Structures are given as structure tokens and as C-alpha cells.
Amino acid sequence: MNDMSSPPSENTWKIRPFAETLVALRFLTRLPIPFVRTLDLPPLAEGMRFFPLAGAIIGTIISAVLIGANMLGLPSLLAAALALAAGVLVTGALHEDGLADVADGFGGGHTREQRLEIMRDSRIGTYGTIALCLTFIGRAAIYETLSGVEPLTILALLAGAAAFSRSLVVDLLWATRPARGDGLSVFAGRPGKRSALFSLLTGGIGAAVAVGLVLSPEIAVVAIIAAGIVLAGLRALAMRKIGGQTGDVCGAVQVLTELTMLTVYAATIG
Q1: Could you give the CA distance from residue 184 to residue 188 in angstroms, rounded to a whole number?
Q2: What is the predicted pLDDT for the residue at 189?
Q3: Which of 28, 88, 210, 265 could form an SS bridge with 160, CB 3.0 to 4.6 Å?
Q4: From residue 269, how far is each of 144, 207, 219 by CA, in Å?
Q5: How far is the C-alpha of 267 from the C-alpha of 83, rounded, in Å?
Q6: Rounded distance, CA 34 to CA 119, Å?
Q7: Could you write out the DSSP letters of every residue in 151-179?
Q8: Is pLDDT of 41 > 50?
Q9: SS in 3 state form for 9-56?
Q10: Biggest distance spanned by C-alpha atoms of the chain
Q11: 204 contacts 171 by C-beta, under 8 angstroms
């Protein structure tokens, strides 16, 4: 007879981080994830501590497309467009959808209830369209700027920003109450304090080291601080507009903090 109160085996502890990484990738990407039917996957809230790793993988894929297009001698703007398309395909535009909903809700709603209702609507409005156009134009301009630098620099900058921006999403979920009793953020669950700190440390240190090596430590610190300021501003705005966070707010945080970090890098390179 098995003792159900016995502690997890050593093999369980070895496979747990791997399983949590698969959970993070399964939620954040549209990549084919192996072993999902054979492993006992943990809840998403536990896998959130590996959101930075999933983000780094996403950033690496986008970097590979941008670098490959540059090596083929394609025009820099076309290379940037291909990298944008790769990002959308890999993530399914998960975060961009949230940004559009936040722009529509915060821009078009006059009360908390109206804003939440607009954000739940699957149709995109004027504010959402404008937000997506501006962020895509900005990202394309940054990718075009990065086309002129070394491949290792492209990889470090894109992977670092993608990782840290997703760690800030974990921080938002932990530190901010949900705005409604249902929805994606409630379904995902709230990570614990340790998971949030682990995510922030791994994402922050990873981005700082990567950017510090290819650019400078000062630029890495400025980009991280700028992303933190954007997170604080969006959190304050969400609290004022709807009284908390939602999955859409999380998506907006990821897109805008990553774009902020990339803007700092591009301004330095340019």
C-alpha cells in the first residue's frame, strides 16, 4: 500500500520545473507543447514563475526570424515585418488582444461597469485599433533599427525584453486584486509571493545581464526602471478605471513594458 502522506520523490522535484515551464509555454504561446498528456501538469498559477523563461523563448524565436531575414539580405523593413508576423504567430496575439480591449474600455467607457463590459466584447473599436497600429508601427521601427546590429545583440535585446515584460505580468497578478469575479486572470489564478519574486528576479537579472553584456549595464538598468514605471502607471490607471486587474490589463502591461524597454535600446543604438 502506498503512503499518500509521503513527501514527493526526488524525481518529482526534478520534473516539476520542467512541467511548470510547459504550463507557461502552453498558456503564453501557440507552440506545440510535448508531454502535456503524459505529465501531471501543475496549475497555471504555479507555472507563472517560469513566464520569463517562456518569454525568453518567444523573444529568441522572433530574433531568429529577424536575424535570418537580415542574413538573406532582405530589406530591413521587410525583415521587421517578418519578425512581427513571427511574434503574432507564436503568441496568437494574446497580449495585443488585451491591449486593444483595454484601450477600447478605458477610452470609451464612462463607468466601471461600462468599461468592463466593453473590454469583454470581442469586437475591436476605434481606440483599440489605434493602440494596435501605434504599437505595431513602433515595434516595426525598432526591429528595423536593430537590423543593423550584430545577431547576438538582437538576440540579447529581444529575449531580455520579452522575458522581463512577462515577469512584470506575474507581479501585476500577485500585487493587484482582480477587477471582476470571473475572466482570464481569475481562471489563471494568482501567483504566490515567492513565485512573483522568483519571476521578477530571474526576468530582471536575465535582462540586465544580457543587455549589460551587449550594450552597457547603465542602459540595462534604465530600461528595467522605465518598464517598472510603465507598470506602476498602468496599475494605477487600472485601479482608477476598473478597480483592479484583468487578463486584458495583463496583456497591455506586457506589450507596453516590452515596447518601453525596446525603445530605450533602439534610442541608444540609433
Answers
A1: 6
A2: 79
A3: 210
A4: 11, 17, 11
A5: 19
A6: 33
A7: HHHHHHHHHHHHHHHHHHHHHHHHHS-BS
A8: yes
A9: CHHHHHHHHHHHHHHHHHHHCCCCCCCCCCCCCCCHHHHHHHHHHHHH
A10: 67
A11: no
Convert the pLDDT of each residue in 238-267 to its tens digit.
Answer: 999 999 999 999 999 999 999 999 999 999
As separate numbers, helices (DSSP H) first and strands (DSSP E) second, the chain gives 12, 0
Angstrom CA distances, 125 to 105, 121, 128, 133, 259, stand at 9, 10, 5, 12, 22
Whether 157 and 208 have beta carbons less than 8 Å apart is answered as no
According to the model, what pLDDT value does residue 20 have? 93
Q: How far apart are CA 46 and CA 233, in angstroms?
A: 26
In what helix (H) or strand (E) does residue 130 lie, and over which residues does it extend? helix 126-146
pLDDT, tens digit, for every residue of 108-132? 999 999 999 999 998 999 999 999 9
DSSP three-state, residue 245: strand
User: Which among 79, 64, 184 has a CA at the least distance from the CA of 140?
Assistant: 79
Contacts of 89 (CB under 8 A, 6+ apart): 30
State the pLDDT at residue 9: 46
- Read off the pLDDT of residues 97-114 as tens digits, 9 standing for 90 and up: 999 999 999 999 999 999
Q: What pLDDT is stored for residue 13 in this prediction? A: 47
